[in-house]
Each structure stands twice: as C-alpha cells, then as structure tokens.
Write a structure and sequence with these properties.
- By secondary structure, the chain is an alpha/beta fold.
- Helices cover about 45% and strands about 15% of the residues.
- Strand 1 and strand 2 form a beta hairpin.
C-alpha cells in the first residue's frame, strides 16, 4: 500500500491547508490572487495554530494559478470605511510580523510574481522561491496608500533603502535582478521539496533558536518604527484617496481638510 504523504487538515474557504508528512510541513495554498477580510481572518487562525504546534517544521505558503498574491482587490478596498481599512491593514501587518516570530521556517513561493501587500508578505518570509521570469511591484502609492506591513518598520533593516526608495516612489514593475538588489533574497527556479527536506533534516531546537537569534534582537526598535508606520498609513487613509481611481487630493486640499477637523475638535 502506498504511504500517505499529504493529509488535508481544517476546512477554510480562502485557502487549502495540507500537512506534508515526509517533511512535517504545513502547506497553505491560496485559492485566489487577492486578499480580503475573510482570508486574513482564516490566515490569522491557522498561523495561531502553527505557533503552538512546534512539531510542524516548516510552513509552505503558495497559491493556485501562476501568480502569488496581487494585494487586495482594489474594488473591495474602495468600498471600505476608514475604520475598516485601518483594521484590515493592522491585521495584515500583524500577520506579516508573525511570520518572523513563528517557530517554523516560513517558505513562500511567489511563482510568477506578486505586488502590494502580497510583496510585503513575501518579504517577511524566511525563504522565498519564484520563477526566473517573475515580476514584482510596489503599487501602493497608485492606490492612494502607503506600505504598512513592515517596509517602514520590522523589514526595514533587511532591505537596501536606496533600491527600495527607487522602486517604491517610481512604482515600476521590476524583475529578479532588482529584487535581489532590494535585499529580498530569493531562490529562483529551485525545487521546493529539496528546501523543505533540508529544513526537516535540521535539528529542531537549533533551527528555532537560530530563527529567534535572526529576528529577536530587532524587536525593541521595531515597536517604535511600527508606530510611525501606522501613523503614516492612517494619514493617507484620512485623505480617502484609496476610494478613488484618479483625481487624488492635493497636498493643499489635505492641509485644509486637516485644519478644519482640528478646529472642529477644539470647538
């Protein structure tokens, strides 16, 4: 009888979750290329489970289709209130940071590319793989938003700031050469089964402690920078530019709007 190598666990609407028995890995495979509130709720749930199950050696996060996460659906975002969009991005920020803190080694397959918060999520992984032809993009600003999932805080020290500044402020699509220059190291065209097997063959205690050592020393600074990152995001949300496809608010208009609100608060 053939040995069982894949065992589905739990039942989620937005992704499949499967235990890969030979490597003691948990595979999380997104059904769609866009994140939404339900995806975040379910992802938060399974990551909380993983955090207490150290017998699982690695997390392998991927998606169906040719591309990885392409951010949030723009139409869905435009329909959200300031309160809801802030809550939603606070949750994805927490999820991204948790990838650095989990006892498992986190591997993300970016496939033929990712953008927006999908790119930020991938940058929070321990190991990334992708196709050589993969295309990436920091498209936050064109959506009337700023990065909010670690680019300005807990991922900052890992990235080349000159490259990040150019890619973020230009909004251009970029390839593997620019991705590597950014500091987001990636294993292009590598076999994920080999990587998961290598992780399985490591001593669990040594692996967990090594991951703690790689990230733990940064946490105090990160807490301060995260507050700055939140304030930057909350400011742009207040402009409500995320609800528009074009005709964004000018700096002068925003200053006037902010002043009116300040005056109302004092009266």
């Amino acid at each position: 009888m053939k040995a069982v190598t894949r065992v589905p666990i739990f039942s989620y609407n937005t992704f499949t979750s499967t235990l890969l028995i030979p490597t003691k890995s948990l595979e999380i495979k997104f059904r769609k290329n866009y994140l939404n509130a339900e995806t975040l709720f379910e992802l938060e749930s399974i990551l909380a489970w993983a955090a207490t199950h150290t017998e699982v050696q690695s997390l392998f996060i991927t998606s169906f289709g040719e591309d990885f996460i392409q951010g949030f659906d723009p139409a869905d975002l435009r329909a959200l209130s300031e309160e809801k969009i802030t809550k939603q991005f606070n949750k994805i920020r927490t999820i991204a940071q948790s990838l650095l803190c989990l006892p498992q080694t986190v591997v993300i397959d970016m496939k033929k590319g990712t953008r927006g918060v999908g790119l930020e999520l991938a940058l929070a992984a321990d190991i990334r793989i992708a196709k050589s032809e993969a295309v990436f993009c920091f498209d936050h600003l064109a959506s009337g938003l700023t990065p909010s999932c670690g680019i300005f805080s807990f991922l900052r020290s890992y990235l080349n700031q000159n490259v990040l500044r150019s890619l973020l402020l230009s909004g251009v699509e970029f390839n593997k050469e620019s991705f590597l220059a950014l500091g987001g190291w990636c294993e292009f065209d590598n076999d994920v089964s080999t990587i998961l097997t290598n992780i399985f063959n490591q001593a669990p205690i040594a692996r967990i402690q090594a991951k703690l050592g790689l990230y733990g020393i940064h946490q105090t600074v990160d807490n301060e920078e995260m507050e700055v990152e939140k304030k930057l995001f909350n400011t742009v949300v207040h402009s409500k530019d995320y609800t528009k496809e074009s005709g964004f608010m000018s700096a002068a208009e925003f200053k006037e709007k902010t002043q009116v609100k300040t005056n109302e608060a004092h009266n």
